[in-house]
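Students often ask what a 'structure token' actually looks like in practice. Rather than answer in the abstract, let us consider Metabolite transport protein YaaU, a protein of 452 residues. Its sequence is given first.
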Amino acid sequence: MPQQPVSQQPTSQQPVNLEDVGMSRALRKVVVFSSGGPFLEGYVLGIIGVALVHMGPDLGINEHWSGLLGAAALVGVFVGAIAGGWVTDLIGRRKMFVIDLILIGVLSLLCMVVSTPGQLFVLRLAIGVVIGADYPIATSMIAEFTPRKYRAMAMGAIAAVWYLGANVAYVVGYLFDNVTRGWTWMLGSSVIPCVIILIGRWSVPESPRWLYSKGRTEEAAEVVRGLYGQDVELGLQPEPTRTKFSKVFSRPYLWRVLFVGVIWLCQAIPMFAMYTYGPQISNAFGLGEGRNALLGEMVVGTFFLIGTIPAMFLAESLGRRRLVIGSFAVMTVALAVLGVVPQPTTIVILVCFVLYALFSGGPGNLQWLYPNELFPTDIRGSAMGVAMAVSRIGTVVSIYILPGFIARQGMGATMIAGAIISAVGFVVSLVWAPETRGHDLSETSAPQFKGR
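Now compare that with the structural description of the same chain:
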């Protein structure tokens, strides 16, 4: 069926397809402030790793509570991603786009007045739910506004700001390291980025693709004219589509969800472990304690951030498939070396951590890009939420058991376990990874798309 222009008004020029427009100031604003959710997750997961080192004496935290508090936000993300994805497909992207930031800010302030580990667990769980809900909202907004030429870079920006958020958390932790009850200020500090992101998001309009998919063509046309000053084709079928959550689990979308969830899981487990328990891992490897360990984590975190930058360009020049396969291969080798080399030197440890961090940018970027390219508008948010939830199941379990595993098995066995997980990501990518480079969303989200 031929594509229909969004606008019903006559034009003197042939409408331009949304996939072929340029990157305007308005679109950059959408990308920047939509990325706020991933920034906040990186921040709140990074800051708890620093705060856990200091809150023990005040709250009486043992190994059990350390695991629970480290995993609390991730459990919340699991719940929030599924619910938020479905809601954003049902009622639209923008409403929750604003509400969730207000909730994160309020919950962060409440973390400053807790007096028991149980209270903090409940609040961290709630923060995770809200952050999880933001993921499918924000990534759907970026995918649906951004033309194909810039989509890999825009989604790469999401991965980059996650690491930026985690690094900023370590900076804040470093500043409050010697402050009495500094952990309360660390946890409450999340309210500052919430306010900044909320101000930026306030004027972002609803996704025209979502409006058009619901039959609200005049509203979609108004948004498009406001952004581009002209009529733009969205590449959608003219019939409105009804959101059905069950469609995510139908063929071929179920297999796509499983693929994205598995590669996300295999990249996220070792990476989350490094961020949540980074100071403890640094101590175990003899890289320093206290503030010195935090500085080491900032260095490694900076390489995670740097690794997302070449991946943005390689996703277009090299292609999605080859990028994810090659990245997992190098990540596996880096962790395996740390596991099998007895008493590795500081240089070996740093080189392996840096290599893992740099090449983590490939799957780190693609775990955001793939789910938004492989699913249609009516279930894009739902599919993104389910894929994230699949990844978080294993991540939650691993984060909870990690402190005890390190204590009983040692750091070498922990690194070997991480290498095995990365190897699974390599095999799954080799068998399943599609190539979506150069296609528009209407092609890659079609049921018949194979990508080979």
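One point worth highlighting: Residues 154 and 245 are 26 Å apart (CA to CA). Ask yourself how you might have guessed this from the sequence alone, and why that guess would often be unreliable.
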